């Protein structure tokens, strides 16, 4: 789990590491602000779409070989980005970086589902999301420091390359296979003689050397074409769409801010690259606050409601945790847009953006844990589609960020964001009321 979390950390660290140096990139490559934004948004898009290739492959040949292949691709493409001499080459490297890193996002929740019980998933899903958001925060902080203390901005990319190379070694050495198939007839223990039941308590010896194998899993039951098709079938499940739209809109607004900060704060507040990077310090604090609310609090709230309702657990109980982000997210968006529009103290838009980062921990923790609870046997397929679709959704919202902000202004754009967010978050109410009936109705669609 730790190796996968490190991969998730770096996948987001490298994505946003360009934000503090966008002005330098624009100058060196002689490109427009919008073209510079594509270096982040297209990376984000393929960070999601790549899952549609990698995750079904992991169901066929195992998670470990896929993680190794992805980590190697990520490392090689980081070298490519560091030596790129033209904008087109650099953009191609960034796209392939996203493709190589993509499996880490969906495999994280799938590994949580493999290793942990239902009452533990909220906590560990929150830890996974904390690593996700800390990567975003530290990517901005460190790249700003590196850009300010080195001769040119390419050192940021070489720093990314060193980290991805180290991560490749960590994956090779410390990421064992987690796919398993328990014999159905032995799951309940019925019909088994007593000695066999006793033997189940003995620890199975599994050495570190044995864990290095990449051939411990191979699924011959389904064809690879069927495995690639299965994630698309999960789009028939309402819970999957709920997770996609709530997670996607939360991510989209934060990508807009992360992309725009590298240009807007130097223009309005005369921030240096290091100053732009230091904005992420607020995001780092917000990450811990949000993930504490989305992890331990989510599990406690679910246990409390379950106890009050007679001890019978229903996945919809997790949706109560959507109330706080639904209230504070609009406040953060308006603080960000209003602060920039009226040139208020720089702390106002920074705090507003940090509120959004806290929400970005809570919302996916609720949504993804809810989906896993509803469809545990399909956790791999559902997380694949959630990751691919929410990144596509976030990309669509943030693709034309600079033309949008230039046309409508910061505050009006924030108002539109609040309206869209409110409409999408209100889907929590029908999901809570009708979720159980929708699961029963869509049970015939299960793969």
From TrEMBL:
GO cellular-component term (any): plasma membrane
Topological type in the membrane: Multi-pass membrane protein
Keyword Transmembrane helix: yes
This protein's name: Major facilitator superfamily (MFS) profile domain-containing protein
Pfam families: MFS_1
InterPro entries: MFS, MFS_dom, MFS_trans_sf
MF (Gene Ontology): transmembrane transporter activity
This protein's UniProt keywords: Membrane, Transmembrane, Transmembrane helix
Organism: Cladophialophora psammophila CBS 110553
Domain Major facilitator superfamily (MFS) profile as annotated: residue spans: 1-439
Residue intervals passing through the bilayer: 7-29, 35-54, 66-83, 95-118, 125-147, 153-175, 237-256, 276-298, 319-340, 346-372, 384-404, 416-434
Keyword Isomerase listed: no
Subcellular location: Membrane
């Amino acid at each position: 789990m730790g190796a996968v979390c490190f991969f998730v950390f770096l996948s987001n660290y490298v994505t946003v590491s360009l934000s503090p140096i966008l002005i330098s990139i624009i100058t060196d490559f002689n490109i427009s602000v919008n073209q510079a934004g594509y270096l982040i948004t297209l990376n984000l898009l393929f960070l999601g779409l790549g899952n549609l290739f990698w995750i079904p492959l992991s169901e066929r040949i195992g998670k470990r070989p896929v993680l190794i292949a992805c980590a190697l691709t990520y490392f090689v493409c980081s070298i490519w980005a560091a030596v790129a001499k033209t904008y087109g080459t650099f953009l191609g490297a960034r796209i392939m970086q996203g493709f190589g890193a993509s499996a880490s996002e969906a495999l994280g929740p799938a590994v949580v589902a493999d290793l942990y019980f239902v009452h533990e998933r909220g906590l560990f899903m929150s830890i996974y999301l904390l690593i996700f958001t800390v990567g975003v925060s530290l990517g901005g902080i460190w790249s700003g420091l590196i850009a300010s203390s080195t001769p040119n901005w390419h050192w940021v990319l070489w720093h990314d390359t060193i980290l991805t190379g180290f991560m490749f070694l960590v994956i090779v050495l410390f990421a064992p296979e987690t796919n398993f198939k328990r014999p159905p007839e032995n799951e309940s223990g019925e019909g088994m003689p007593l000695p066999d039941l006793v033997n189940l308590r003995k620890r199975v010896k599994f050495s570190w050397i044995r864990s290095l194998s990449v051939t411990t899993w191979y699924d011959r039951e389904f064809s690879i074409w069927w495995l690639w098709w299965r994630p698309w079938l999960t789009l028939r499940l309402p819970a999957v769409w709920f997770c996609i739209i709530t997670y996607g809109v939360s991510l989209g607004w934060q990508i807009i801010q992360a992309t725009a900060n590298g240009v807007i704060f130097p223009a309005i507040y005369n921030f240096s690259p290091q100053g732009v990077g230091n904005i992420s310090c607020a995001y780092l604090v917000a990450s811990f606050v949000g993930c504490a609310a989305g992890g331990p609090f989510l599990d406690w709230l679910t246990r409390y409601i379950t106890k009050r309702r007679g001890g019978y657990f229903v996945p919809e109980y997790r949706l109560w945790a959507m109330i706080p982000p639904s209230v504070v997210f609009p406040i953060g968006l308006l603080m960000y847009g209003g602060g920039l529009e009226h040139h208020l103290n720089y702390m106002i838009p920074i705090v507003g953006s940090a509120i959004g980062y806290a929400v970005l921990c809570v919302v996916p923790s609720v949504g993804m844990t809810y989906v896993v609870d509803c469809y545990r046997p399909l956790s791999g397929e559902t997380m694949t589609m959630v990751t691919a679709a929410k990144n596509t959704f976030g990309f669509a919202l943030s693709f034309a960020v600079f033309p949008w902000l230039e046309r409508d202004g910061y505050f009006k754009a924030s108002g539109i964001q609040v309206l869209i967010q409110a409409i999408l978050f209100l889907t929590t109410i029908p999901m809570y009321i009708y979720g159980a009936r929708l699961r029963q109705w869509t049970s015939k669609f299960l793969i």
